[in-house]
Design goal:
Layout lengths: L1 H20 L5 H14 L8 H4 L4 H20 L5 H28 L3 H17 L12 H7 L3 H14 L4 E6 L4 E6 H9 L6 H22 L1
Antiparallel strand pairs: 1-2
Helix pairs in contact: 1-5, 1-8, 4-5, 5-8, 5-10, 8-10
Length: 223
């Protein structure tokens, strides 16, 4: 059951990340010749390009992740309580928006179409590989562990996992062959096995919001 839920949450994060990031990484590199010509002709300043390159984002990147969660959440059989559903929706919305902002940031850095595609893979795949789904915290070498703190994969997967297992309650486990029973706090046992800390739930949500703001503002201050 633990592996099933972890796999579902892994798919949630990767689907929302890749589906929203890769379509926008070539936005500015593809339009750069036209933009430079119009900018040099004095039609508009360069800071006007980013807001106008993402029409409809304000609504689509909120209701699209919400629809995704609404369709899949109860179909899969995740925690039925409303607070768990809405927190999952919030995290997935943050994932989608952070992925898009990251894609636009890469698009601003890249000078051409090919560079944008290369950077989009090379810059996020190492951090994505170090997410908590593949490697247990504490087992990653220190010279690589810092990369995971720059990726929303780490924060989102941990937050989603904690949200599913927190306050799960106790269950009775029968020990064979002596037939004795043992009361186990399932949520605590799962968190200990995965190496997560329940107190990090809102820290992870805050870190994702900080990444969203940083990747959103970076193109304005770097240009």
């Amino acid at each position: 059951m633990v592996a099933n839920i972890s796999g579902v949450l892994f798919v949630f994060v990767t689907n929302m990340s890749f589906a929203n990031m890769f379509p926008v990484v070539t936005t500015f590199s593809a339009e750069m010749p036209l933009f430079l010509r119009e900018h040099w002709n004095g039609l508009y300043p360069h800071r006007c390009l980013l807001p106008h390159a993402q029409p409809g984002r304000t609504t689509s990147l909120y209701h699209q992740p919400l629809r995704f969660v609404c369709i899949t959440y109860y179909m899969i059989g995740l925690r039925p309580e409303p607070e768990h559903f809405f927190l999952t929706s919030l995290i997935i919305i943050l994932v989608a928006n952070t992925a898009v902002s990251y894609g636009y940031m890469i698009s601003c850095i890249a000078k051409n179409y090919q560079t944008a595609l290369v950077l989009s893979h090379a810059s996020h795949l190492p951090a994505a590989a170090l997410r908590r789904f593949y490697m247990k915290p504490g087992t990653i070498p220190p010279y690589l562990d810092w990369l995971s703190y720059l990726s929303w994969f780490k924060y989102s997967f941990e937050a989603l996992t904690i949200n599913q297992w927190i306050d799960w309650g106790n269950e009775t486990i029968f020990l064979y062959p002596n037939g004795t029973t043992l009361e186990v706090d399932i949520g605590h046992a799962v968190m200990e096995k995965l190496g997560f800390d329940v107190s990090n739930l809102w820290v992870d949500v805050g870190a994702m919001f900080a990444l969203l703001v940083a990747t959103e503002l970076w193109p304005f201050f770097s240009s």
